[in-house]
């Protein structure tokens, strides 16, 4: 399977307000208005919720000793170094999802519509509206279908890490299902190595996830 650069359709999330060499400077909006798209499944306390810049309530995470484990990568002979994209798989809301592209330049986690539509109906009903635009390389502004919080489990065998991530759901063509950005990597306590085509994260012990070539 040929892997195109999935960033060709999706640029930097505008709510960061940071300069991106690829997409230019975006003015930071004053507020982000969110609501449940399914009025029959509204949860009390979420309707009309306004999230200002940087004032979102963070879920409490108990700090365990293993979270501070040292992460290191082996030395590799120069002839074995690679520059291919890091493509992983993970369990997202109970579904095994492949073709997850690790993108250290993305400030948000992105899920493409074709992947989102394969989630369960109860999960899809929790999609919330977002007015924060995404800007592509051409400068074209695209508004996402919405945002949604989903549980993500990654790791190997008994070394797994389960966290909740906020995904921006977008409608555009991509060979990938999900983009894992900087926030997701931080929540996993993960470090990526492009030349080794793998990431390592703290998960009870150190878990190693290597690029999925399928």
CATH architecture of the domain at 9-27 and 81-210: Beta Barrel
Instruction: Say which CATH homologous superfamily of the domain at 9-27 and 81-210 is assigned.
Output: Acid Proteases
Which spans of ≥5 residues are poorly predicted at pLDDT below 50?
A: 1-58
Report the top-level CATH class of the domain at 9-27 and 81-210.
Mainly Beta
Strand order of the largest sheet: 3-4-10-5-9-8
- What does the overall shape look like? globular
Write the element-wise H/E pattern from the N-terminal end onward.
EEEEEHHEEEEEHEEE
The total beta strand count reads 13
Distance between the termini: 7 Å
- How much strand? 25-35%
- What structural class results from the helix and strand content? mainly beta
Mean pLDDT level: 72
Q: Count the helices. How many?
A: 3
Major sheet details: 6 strands, mixed, barrel
- Give Rg in angstroms: 18 Å
CATH topology of the domain at 9-27 and 81-210: Cathepsin D, subunit A, domain 1
The share of residues in helices is under 10%
